[in-house]
Amino acid sequence: MTHRKLTGKIVAATHNKGKLVELEELLGPHGLEVVAAGALGLPEPEETGDTFEANALIKSRTAAKLSGLPALADDSGLCVEGLGGAPGIYSARWANGGDFGAAMERIRQELEARATLRPWRAWFVSALAISWPDGHDETFEGRVDGELNFPPRGTAGFGYDPIFTPEGHERSFGEMISLEKHGLPADGSQALSHRARAFQRLERACL
C-alpha cells in the first residue's frame, strides 16, 4: 500500500480537550498547523460504527468533508477482560456527559458483582484515522495492556487514566506526566500509551 504524506494544515477532529492536547503535542514536532474541529464550528457526528476504526473514520471523514482540509480523528477506549471487553467503543457513553468518576465506579461495581478475580486485566485501544477531502483514508491502531487499580490514582491525563496501570509499571496513567505517557522515544522504541503507539505507525507512514 502506498501511503499519502501529511503536510500543511490539518483538522484535529475531536471536541475532547484531553485528546486535542495529546494530538497537538504529537503533531507539533512535524511542523503541521493543527486547528481544532470546535474552532471551525464543526459538529460532532454520531458514532454509529461497531469498531474503534469505524468510529474514527466517521469523525475524520466528516471533518474533512466539511472543512476541505485533511482531518485526523481518534477513537479510543478502555476494554476490561472481566466485562467481556466493555466498555470498549462505548467508553465515552459510560461516562454519561463526561462523568468519568461515575464510569470508573460502575466498572468496579460490575467487576465485584461478577466476583471477578484480581488482577483485573484491561487494555486501552486507540484507532487513528486520517481522511482527505478527496476521499482518501489512512488508519492506524495501537494497544497497551495492563490492569485496573482501585481506588483511582492521580489527577493527570483524562478519562479512565486514574484506574489503569500499564504492564511493567507501578503508577497509573493518571499519575504520569504527559510526556511520560505518550512521548515518542528518541531511539524509535515502542511508546507507552495506546495513542502514542498508534501515532508511531502513522508517523512512519504519513509524516
Word description of this protein:
The protein has a six-stranded mixed sheet with strand order 2-1-3-4-5-6. It is built from six helices and six strands. The two termini are 15 Å apart. It has a single domain (9-206), classed as Maf protein, CATH 3.90.950. A hairpin with a 5-residue loop joins strand 4 and strand 5. Helix content is 30%, strand content 21%. The mean pLDDT is 95. It has 207 residues and is an alpha/beta fold.
List the helices and strands and how they pair.
Blueprint: E1 9-12, H1 17-27, E2 33-36, H2 52-67, E3 71-80, H3 91-94, H4 100-113, E4 121-131, E5 137-148, E6 164-166, H5 178-182, H6 194-206
Parallel strand pairs: 1-2, 1-3
Antiparallel strand pairs: 3-4, 4-5, 5-6
Brief characterization of the structure:
With 207 residues, this protein is of the alpha/beta class.
Q: How many β-strand stretches?
A: 6
Strand content: 15-25%
Q: What is the ordering of alpha helices and beta strands?
A: EHEHEHHEEEHH
Spatial strand order of the main sheet: 2-1-3-4-5-6
For the sheet with most strands, the description reads: 6 strands, mixed
